[in-house]
């Protein structure tokens, strides 16, 4: 008996997704709740578990297809062996009988009708080679003419090639949201720099003890998040948002942090970051990073941030103008640390410096507020004791 695999509920206001990858092929054994497919939504990848234990049946959709919530994407046949999944392809009355288990599996894997294949085995029975040959011939026959290069002679002589790859749903959403932000916000970017000497010294001095006690490495992001939370309290407009003709001020700081995922950056939210210690922030960020790579971040973890911090410095960026993540009104861009000559007490000295960039919605945040925010952040980072005593 076949059990249908349906697209699960994907989150509030999300009604469709794109099939990103099949994790199980027809004929594969599956356990109950074992992931069999990966769906790409607007924000994150979601794995689809098998509703029962058995054998993977036919795929009802292909990689790249758009599927609706509740739609059937595959079937799982009851039982533990490959033979349990065989009846569907042999439904034709003219289909040959007594297919061996290996041939049944090949039929399922290639999705061909055994009734249309001439067997070359004993007494005209089908072999795995017969099924594979038929599948190859069918694929060649269905290949669209458009796949043939229009000017093969030019391509052959110059060696120039092109590849067209459909944008993932996540990338389409990123592109749309970033363009919407540019169209709707009066976006402006203000820069400053920060001397990282004191933070580097504190990190070097305490990193081993920190990791031993808290089980997580002491990075720079924990300092920046705490410093940003302090600055947001001083300049609440940077932590606010516009809704219609109203300004919404938040008395909490939910900090969105950009982390790398296989299909691009995702932005999970550190809830109540202003209430967390540096250790708590580092643990949360580390957990986000691991689960972003595994594709196990949840929808709710990507919603509701009030301010974003994006660290392009980990990729070597010297300076950038980050784009606001709507409906937020500001985003802080961090960049690489490099030794530069600066003047201290009338002397030219070398210091590890980092450029900071604050992009903000000028409809809500004035230039004075943006500069004041960056100065407050700079002061806290250059004297980390301020973070400890909330000054």
Overview of the structural elements:
With 391 residues, the chain is of the alpha+beta class. The chain folds into two domains: 2-145, RNA polymerase II/Efflux pump adaptor protein, barrel-sandwich hybrid domain (OB fold (Dihydrolipoamide Acetyltransferase, E2P), Beta Barrel), CATH 2.40.50.100; 169-389, Chloramphenicol acetyltransferase-like domain (Chloramphenicol Acetyltransferase, 2-Layer Sandwich). It is built from nine helices and 19 strands. Strands 9, 12, 15, 16, 17, 18 and 19 form a seven-stranded mixed sheet that branches. α1 packs parallel to α2 (128-142), α6 crosses α7 (278-294) and α6 packs across α8 (367-382). It is elongated, with a radius of gyration of 28 Å. The N and C termini lie far apart (67 Å). 34% of the residues are buried. Residues 81-95 have low confidence and may be disordered.
């Amino acid at each position: 008996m076949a059990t249908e695999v349906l697209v699960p509920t994907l989150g509030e206001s999300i009604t469709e997704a794109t099939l990103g990858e099949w994790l199980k092929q027809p004929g594969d054994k599956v356990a109950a709740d074992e992931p069999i497919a990966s769906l790409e939504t607007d924000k994150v990848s979601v794995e689809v578990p098998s509703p029962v234990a058995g054998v993977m049946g036919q795929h009802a959709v292909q990689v790249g297809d758009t599927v609706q919530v509740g739609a059937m994407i595959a079937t799982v046949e009851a039982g533990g062996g490959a033979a349990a999944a065989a009846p569907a392809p042999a439904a034709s009355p003219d289909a040959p009988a007594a297919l061996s288990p290996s041939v049944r599996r090949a039929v399922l894997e290639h999705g061909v009708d055994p009734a249309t294949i001439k067997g070359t085995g004993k007494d005209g029975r089908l072999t795995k080679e017969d099924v594979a040959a038929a599948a190859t011939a069918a694929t060649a026959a269905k290949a669209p003419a458009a796949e043939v290069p229009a000017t093969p002679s030019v391509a052959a002589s110059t060696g120039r090639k092109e590849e067209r790859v459909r944008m993932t749903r996540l990338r389409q959403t990123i592109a749309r949201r970033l363009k919407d932000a540019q169209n709707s916000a009066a976006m402006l970017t203000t820069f400053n720099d920060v001397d990282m000497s004191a933070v580097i010294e504190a990190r070097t001095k305490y990193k081993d003890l920190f990791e031993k006690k808290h089980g997580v490495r002491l990075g720079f992001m924990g300092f920046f998040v705490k410093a940003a939370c302090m600055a947001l309290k001083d300049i609440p407009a940077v932590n606010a948002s516009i809704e219609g003709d109203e300004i919404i001020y938040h008395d909490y700081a939910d900090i969105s942090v950009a982390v790398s995922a296989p299909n691009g950056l995702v932005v999970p939210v550190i809830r109540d970051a202003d209430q967390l210690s540096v250790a708590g922030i580092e643990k949360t960020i580390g957990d986000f990073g691991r689960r972003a790579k595994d594709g196990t971040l949840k929808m709710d973890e990507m919603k509701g941030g009030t301010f974003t911090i994006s660290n392009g410095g980990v990729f070597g960026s010297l300076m950038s103008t980050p784009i606001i993540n709507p409906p937020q009104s500001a985003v802080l861009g961090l960049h690489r640390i490099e030794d530069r000559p600066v003047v201290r007490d009338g002397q030219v000295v070398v210091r590890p410096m980092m450029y900071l960039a604050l992009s903000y919605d000028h409809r809500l945040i004035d230039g004075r507020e943006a500069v004041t925010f960056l100065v407050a952040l700079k002061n806290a980072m250059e004297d980390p004791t301020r973070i400890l005593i909330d000054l």
